[in-house]
Amino acid sequence: MFIFLYLLYPANMNHHSIILQSLQKVEDVSSSYTAHWLEPYRLGHLLLVETIGKEHDRITEAIVQLALQGPFNLIAGDEWLPDRDTLTRSVRRYTVRVTETLDNPRLRRPMTCLQLLDLLMEADQENRPTLITNFLHHFYNADVELSLRDRVLEQCCQYTKRLSLSNPVVVLVPRLFTEEYNRFFPLLASIANEIIPVEEETIQEDVQGRLF
């Protein structure tokens, strides 16, 4: 179970600490481990989070926490994003400046892996934190030649890493049990400074939930 920490954040708290808190998996966490999530922002930090399924609540909270801090790039790798009403309800828990807060995400939605590359190149010209959901989604498109997907993914990883040199970057990737996932994920993982993997217990619980 994922528990989000609903806190009043001081004005000088950085994006890196905030987004890590909103994504943290909490289960009997030791004090030393908890402190790890609150480390100061480090240049060049790219956080990669494996998820089980869509995890809509988790994505919604990550979007809200970044929006509360100011403008950021939101690149939606697949079709799903929380609707305006859901975001409004979530933002109201923290601030009365709802409209201003909801204007902070700069939403971009690529339709192909090549468009994802274009958006990452465009984001590289800006100075904002970036949240990318379902990063590998368009690389599973069998209508695109595999060798082309490999090359484009390598370029996307390069630009994603560059983005993290000046601002926090968080990449969410749903865990799949396919050959393509096993092919693509290691390259993405190789550029990450920190990876939050899916725990085996969580996988088993998810599988059991689907079966029963």
Task: Describe this entry's structure for a reader.
This protein is of the alpha/beta class and 212 residues long. The protein has one domain: 3-Layer(aba) Sandwich (Rossmann fold). It has nine helices and six strands. A six-stranded parallel sheet has the order 3-2-4-5-1-6, sandwiched between helices. Helix 7 links the parallel strand 4 and strand 5. Helix 3 packs across helix 4 and helix 6 runs parallel beside helix 7. The protein starts with 14 loop residues before the first helix and ends with a helix. The N terminus and C terminus are likely disordered.
For the CA atoms, what is the radius of gyration?
17 Å
Low-confidence stretches: 1-13, 25-41, 200-212
Biggest sheet features:
6 strands, parallel
Which structural class do the helices and strands define? alpha/beta
Number of domains: 1
Q: What's the β-strand tally?
A: 6
In the CATH hierarchy, the architecture is: 3-Layer(aba) Sandwich
For the biggest β-sheet, the strand order reads: 3-2-4-5-1-6
For the record, give the distance between the C-alpha atoms at the N and C termini, rounded to a whole number: 18 Å
CATH topology: Rossmann fold
Overall pLDDT metric:
79
What multimeric state do the chains show?
Answer: single chain
The CATH homology group name: P-loop containing nucleotide triphosphate hydrolases
Percent helix, as a range, is: 40-55%
Q: What would the principal axes of the Cα set say about the shape?
A: globular
Strand residues, percent: 5-15%
- The CATH class designation is Alpha Beta
In N-to-C order, the SSE pattern is: HHEHEHHEHEHEHEH
Number of helices: 9
